Amino acid sequence: MSARTRADPExxxxxxxxxxxxxxxxxxxxxxxxxxxxxxTAAVMLHAPPGWAVTTVVASVxxxxxxxxxxxxxxxxxxxxxxxxRVTAHAxxxxxxxxxxxxxxxxxxxxxxxxxxxxxxxxxxxxxxxEVEVTADPRLTRPRVxxxxxxxxxxxxxxxxxxxxxxxxxxxxxxxxxxxxxxxxDRQPAAPAAGRGSPWLSLLPSTRLRVEAGLAPxxxxxxxxxxxxxxxxxxxxxAVGGPSAPQRLAGRLRxxxxxxxxxxxxxxxxxxxxxxxxxxxxxxxxxxxxxxETDLTHTLAVSGANFTIxxxxxxxxxxxxxxxxxxxxxxxxxxxxxxxxxxxxxxxLAFVVVCRPDPSVLRAAACGSVALLALATGRxxxxxxxxxxxxxxxxxxxxxxxxxxxxxxxxxATGALLTLAPRWSEALRRHGVPPRIAEAxxxxxxxxxxxxxxxxxxxxxxxxxxxxxxxLAEAALAPATVLGFLALAAAPVAMPSAEAxxxxxxxxxxxxxxxxxxxxxxxxxxxxxxxxxxxAAALGAVxxxxxxxxxxxxxxxxxxxxxxxxxxxxxxQPRPLVRTITGWPPPDWRMVMCDVGQGDALVxxxxxxxxxVVDAGPDPEPVDRCLSSLGVTRVPLVVLTHFHADxxxxxxxxxxxxEVGGIGTTGLEEPxxxxxxxxxxxxxxxxxxxxxxxxxxxxxxxxxWEVVWPPPGGHPTVEGPNDASVAMLVRTGGLRLLLLGDxxxxxxxxxxxxxxxxxxxxxxxxxxxxxxxxxxxxxxLDLAAPRLALISTGEDNSYGHPAxxxxxxxxxxxAAVLRTDRxxxxxxxxxxxxxxxxxxxxx
Length: 843
Fold this sequence. Notes:
- The chain is α/β, with parallel strands linked by helices.
- Strand 18, helix 25 (672-685) and strand 19 form a beta-alpha-beta unit.
- Helices cover 50% and strands 16% of the residues.
- The termini are far apart.
- Helix 10 (304-315) packs parallel to helix 13 (359-377) and helix 17 (466-490) packs antiparallel against helix 18 (495-521).
């Protein structure tokens, strides 16, 4: 009886130990120095002279041999003792051998870029006939404004040249990595689907093509391409070899997922393929911006998180990996741990095949394998060595990863989850935070702390909503990913079932998109930060200081609440509070010239929360931010003075989330592609488009305006879009404002002689034509004689706007001249009395 009594506590203790993870000692960091040394060596050697790589390999191998020799050990033993000398010698030798391997691999990869006929022909800008093999999924460039037009949307394809032939010369075999830039001829500033119908986008990796292209040197520095091939893509690709069987399988599965998601709401339809297999072909620039503003872009790329979720489904949560009551599918089905490991390997292989075995996917699988080891062993100490091993192997396999910001962010995020997050989670639990909330906060905070400086290098901006948005999105990421993979697997055999599963996955995917859009719409979603590594170092110092202060604040709940409230106010930025602190916008503003870079966008006050918008600038984001800062939610009319891209490409920013009554345009629809894009955007938003002409008068609240140019029946001076600009005489708050669009001197002279000229004399404010260019009519400037001249132009623009002569002429006529490139957004308000009839506020 007594023996049984004594045995029971022991059995209970064993059961308790089995239900808890083993206590781990300090992290095993022995593999970290070799991995970091290989990483740094590869980054340096990729663009080093060829002899450097050979010298580094020889020197490192010889040094390792010396350390491992008897004499080297004896030399170390005199200082450190025999046992420590042996350990030190092995560690340093391993690091040196990894350096040698990285130098050799980087030297060979760098030679591929520098040697062979392709770089030589690129330096001559030769026209060639080349046979290339596609190595990655094609992708579209973002629509962008180039001058007053939209740059063509291009398809970017990473490939390898296998054979190249110059006119009049024999074909030469080679193997050089190149970037194909395929011009689709599509210039659509307001069309999210621009270029998406191109047959070049449907090409699968491993497909062989024959292309006629112009060669050009790749960008010097960190590029991994031997040359750039510029291809006219209007005729479509000419394939000379089909894709491999694995790529065809992956292509069918990905196409099946796209078909299964075809009927989902727009955001879920675009996002779900990206969450599952990294297919972002449907993600619009607007949605992509929202994910970038909230630091959620990792959800749009294939990452270790995707793989980890699938492994967790198979093996159970990491915290239960060593318990008898694990809750994964494998233990519930009675599958042994060893068989489960085999299943995990098969799953890893399938993941790589479906998501394409390019470097980013291989990186994701390797980092996800760290989670596989954690789930299989339950030992936290084994994770850091596993991560170091993954980094080492990947850098040796593809040295270009050592210069990849994506690779750096992936490693930093994984390292933060393995090292910082557990400690921070434990600290939060000690202060009374529930375990699940503590783990989520610690994981998001640790990843953000390490990754934010690198993000600042790339974007010169720091997100203030990243942590809460990641926490809110995290809850939906797992169900969206798991259901998305089920839809992917079901699509080839049962499309109705795949569509039903995709419909279920659309709910969490839509939630993630709403989180991103809501976070990005916050006025204080992010703050500008110095770019480059200097800015990264500064942000790192600020982060460390914030963490030190945060440790003390955890002891004082009231101070924590006060800091949280302050952060919420910074993000939400209630307009009354912002106006009190910054004075923007002025209480009685009548017109605001938004700072939209090299372009035009004006807002005329038309009542509480309403404003007439004149032009939309070259980019949707600046004009959207400007209207939001003014509290404009209703737009009775958008006037597009003419169809140049620097005036209309930002139209979607005006339409975003606002009630718009109509769009008025000039009668000359040139450039035709941009005019068509405006009509498509208006039709999609359900906004009517009308033409406006001289003599038209309208009113909105206290605001009234008259169109003074162009004449309805045309005019001999109207020879292009600039001279067809809509010019308006605006009356508001006792002020008269003359808005000239981009009128050139011939149209300006005709306007000064028109019947409306008598009303243009002595205006209060002049919106100077064509961004203050040198082409101005002195007669019209003399007639207008403005008190205040406003110029909308971009900082350091290549056109020299505004022209110094134009500024001097305006000042000589008694006008105060302000410009957005130096003064920011400008608000016109009625004067305070006396001789001052107009005032201006700067933002």
